[in-house]
Specification:
Blueprint: H1 4-9, E1 11-16, H2 21-30, E2 34-40, H3 46-51, E3 55-58, H4 66-73, E4 78-81, H5 91-116, E5 123-127, H6 142-158, E6 164-169, E7 171-173, E8 180-183, E9 193-195, H7 196-207, E10 217-222
Parallel strand pairs: 1-2, 1-4, 2-3, 4-5, 5-6, 6-10, 7-9
Antiparallel strand pairs: 8-10
Helix pairs in contact: 2-7, 4-5, 5-6
């Protein structure tokens, strides 16, 4: 028999980029504690999401307006942005996903907040990277698109009145998580490594809290401290 009261009491979490490596590692670990919806671009990833314990939502993030985002995300307690092209498909796609779609999502969150009030609107966890506000590059192609996109989105989020936090991990790996080390959000730590499993642990540690930390960024890499100490 399904414990419906327990199911209904779970926090509703939307993971945008639900088929990415961070999400694919994290969702199976936390699907018993949260009601997770995995937002996916490709239908063929839907069954994988179900196997991981999430409800799949097939939707291309680049096709949603702010109004459509607002209609979609209003039902969730927490919205997590892990989507990103990261320059892999070229500059045009990177700007479309990492900048334009993220900006529309933020505008949609603001519409929800305006309608229901700040403390009833979803909390927002944005996955960025270490030193996003100060990073520069001589590249004039896809990597520049990524650097400028993340910088633009993070600054836009900081300027908002949303309940949000930006996660700033360093170079991501597939190594097992051993703990966390908090740092300042600076490119001087960019050479450190961060387990994708650790990023997932930080996401769901914060998703389970009633209130997000007061600071705009949580910058971190692999370490030995407990994630609960954040």
């Amino acid at each position: 028999m399904v414990d419906t009261q327990h199911v209904e009491s779970k926090k509703q979490v939307l993971v945008i980029g639900g088929s990415g490596q961070v999400a694919s590692i994290a969702i199976p670990q936390y699907c018993n504690d949260f009601a997770i919806t995995a937002m996916l671009r490709r239908e063929e990833k839907a069954e994988e999401a179900r196997e991981h314990g999430a409800t799949p939502l097939v939707q291309d993030v680049t096709e949603l307006s702010a109004d459509e985002w607002a209609e979609l995300i209003g039902q969730f307690d927490v919205v997590v942005w892990t989507a990103g092209n990261g320059g892999r498909a070229g500059a045009e796609v990177t700007y479309a996903v990492d900048r334009d779609a993220a900006l529309e999502c933020i505008a949609g969150l603001e519409k929800v907040q305006d309608a229901v009030g700040k403390h009833k609107a979803p909390k927002f966890i944005m996955v960025s990277y270490m030193g996003s506000l100060e990073n520069e590059t001589d590249d004039d192609g896809a990597w520049l698109a990524y650097v400028e996109s993340k910088k633009t989105v993070d600054k836009r989020l900081i300027a908002s009145d949303l309940r949000f936090v930006i996660l700033a991990p360093t170079l991501l790996t597939l190594e097992p998580a051993t703990g966390v080390k908090l740092t300042e959000n600076s490119t001087k730590f960019a050479g450190e490594h961060t387990s994708r499993e650790l990023v997932g642990q930080v996401i769901f540690e914060l998703a389970g809290r009633e209130n997000l930390p007061d600071e705009d960024f949580i910058a971190f890499h692999d370490g030995n401290d407990a994630v609960s100490s954040i």
